[in-house]
Amino acid sequence: MSEINTTYLIVGGGIAGVTCVETLAILHPEKTLVLVTASTLVKNVSNVTFFAKTIVNFDVNETEATSLQKIHPNLKIIYDSLKHLDTEKQKALTDKGVHIQYDVICICTGGIPRLISDSKNSKRVLGIRDTESVKDFQQKLKTGRRMVIVGNGGIASEIVHATSGIEKVWVIRDDYISATFIDPGAAEFFQETFKNENERKNQNTILRRHIYSEEDSLVSLNKNLKSAALGPDWYRKLENIKSDRGVQELEIVYKAEVESVLEDNKNEYPLRVQLTNSQLVECDFLISATGVEPSVNFTWDKVPEKGQDGGLAVNEFQETSIKNVFAAGDVASAAWEHAPHWFQLRLWTQARQMAGMAAKAMHGRITNQEVLQDFCFELFTHCTKLFGYRVILLGKYNGQGLGTDYEILLRTTPNVEYIKFVLKDGKLQGAILIGETDLEEMCENLILDQIDLSPFGDDILNPDIHIDDYFD
Ligand SMILES: Cc1cc2nc3c(=O)[nH]c(=O)nc-3n(C[C@H](O)[C@H](O)[C@H](O)COP(=O)(O)OP(=O)(O)OC[C@H]3O[C@@H](n4cnc5c(N)ncnc54)[C@H](O)[C@@H]3O)c2cc1C
Ligand SMILES: NC(=O)C1=CN([C@@H]2O[C@H](COP(=O)(O)OP(=O)(O)OC[C@H]3O[C@@H](n4cnc5c(N)ncnc54)[C@H](OP(=O)(O)O)[C@@H]3O)[C@@H](O)[C@H]2O)C=CC1
After folding, report:
1. Which bound ligand lies closest to the C-alpha atom of 134?
2. How far is the CA of 80 from the centre of ligand 2 (A)?
3. Which CATH number applies to 396-471: 3.30.390, 3.40.50, 2.30.29, 3.90.1720?
């Protein structure tokens, strides 16, 4: 049994943990820092590009944990798992029996896939989280003829887009696809591209104004220790895998859920999936892409407050209800009063932002300095790719929490772009920008500054009028 003393202790080698280490390396290189990580490979971020003040795009890579020692001379890495935390004595105990005395700790233990309830009935029900789970999926894809995909968020959308040579039955409980990130209009835009993947004609620009009720377009707020969650391009690994026997075919089953799953290896298709709409689907395996749950997989002397989603509730400085215990990333639940245009979604952008904030606050605690919450929490931004298109989501992009009293302005050019503005009292509250729209910086300014756009009417989205010229 060994004993270690450190000023800073970080648990977890995902984006949150590594960002926390990197930030502390800059803020306080002379102090001791310990990283407890179960895996020798950790996640880091490169090629950071700012599309605007708060809209950031970056690559996520896997790297040897030892490479972090180059940036922090006083970093000690322990390849182990946190087993017990004594917050009173400020002592952590690992699986291998190492005791770590700390001044401040940041828990960055991420999340695990939340699988459908019948998942225990069969090893043919898979969740996707880390490299190991993708390998399992790749293996099943090679020989599979038909798969069922359950869930309507990021992972399901990427799998449907990236896989070929296998029959796909996509079971969603909404009446349109990719509901976590987009609205029914954008879903229609993407489905058109499924139909004419290679045709880029009929490119008529359509401009529409709608009054939507909240129910029409509410976004869903999302609700075994392995390696860190995958990065944004994980599905590229699936693109070139073709089944020997399968055919390319996609069936979408709307407004349905899985009622039960039964494995019978004597059948032609070993998995029988009973849906709530009475449909029975036989398949080789099922992907449960049904969200994440925070991973608090160790014991405490005193459990801190939890958020509704089971995550560790943190304030605006990422501190839990227990002093000197901070948390960031998927394991944390943002429990402070949010700015009007920000909300939590478990994304790598937010894992990075939370961890940067936690590091600043931990440093402030040690050095007795006051810290302010970072500007990035003023505006929800997410930059991603869906079905091959660049997608930028800003603010209350689906009218989240705006009640029924808001307007939607749409401009769409089939196969090229889909632009949606959410306006309340003539001011921009959120936007969905699909394609190379070049509108992100303008939208960011319009949301943050709450400029009254009513004098412009529908011209805000008129492609012949450069609205940003008015604000330069
Ligand atoms: C398939 C997939 C695709 C995704 N694509 C995107 C995307 O395109 N864009 C996007 O923004 N987000 C995406 N995400 C979400 C994003 O990956 C996560 O929000 C983000 O990685 C969370 O980072 P984290 O550091 O909090 O957690 P994790 O990456 O889960 O890291 C947690 C780390 O803690 C370690 N750990 C856990 N328990 C312990 C313990 N007791 N002791 C020591 N170590 C422990 C784990 O081994 C792991 O290394 C995707 C997620 C998945 C699964
Ligand atoms: N491009 C990107 O930005 C990507 C981001 N990610 C992130 O990775 C994490 C995991 O992704 P993912 O698993 O897709 O999670 P998401 O939270 O994105 O989506 C989960 C989906 O599953 C649905 N669901 C939940 N439970 C059930 C159930 N029992 N039966 C049927 N449907 C159900 C949810 O519906 P409902 O909303 O109604 O609860 C939702 O549509 C998320 O944090 C996600 O944001 C992942 C891939 C890509």
Report:
1. 1
2. 29
3. 3.30.390
84-93, 232-241, 403-412: least confidently modelled range:
232-241
Instruction: Report the half-sphere exposure of 32 (CA within 13 A, side-chain side).
Output: 11
In the CATH scheme, what is the code of domain 113-181+220-292? 3.50.50.60
Structure confidence at residue 310 (pLDDT): 95
What's the rounded Cα separation, in Å, for the pair 232 and 363? 30
Specify the fold of 3-110+295-376.
Answer: FAD/NAD(P)-binding domain (3.50.50)
Question: Using a 6 Å cutoff on CB, does residue 219 contact ligand 2?
Answer: no
Pocket test of ligand 2: the residue of 155, 235, 434 to mutate, having most ligand atoms within 8 Å of its CB, is 155
pLDDT at 472: 53
**Can you tell me the ipTM of this complex?**
0.97
Do the domains spanning 113-181+220-292 and 396-471 agree at the CATH topology level? no
State the pTM of this model: 0.89
Distances in Å between the alpha carbon of 48 and those of 55, 60, 70, 79? 10, 10, 20, 28
Region 384-392: mean pLDDT is 90
* Residue predicted with more confidence, 456 or 7: 7
Average pLDDT for 152-157: 93
List the chain domain ranges: 3-110+295-376, 113-181+220-292, 396-471
| Dihedral, 178, 188, 467, 452 alpha carbons, nearest 10 | -70
Query: Which one of 68, 134, 295, 386 would you pick to mutate in the ligand 1 pocket, going by the greatest count of ligand atoms within 8 A of its CB?
Result: 295
Rounded distance between C-alpha atoms, residue 1 and residue 162, angstroms = 48
Centroid of ligand 1 to alpha carbon of 270 (angstroms): 31
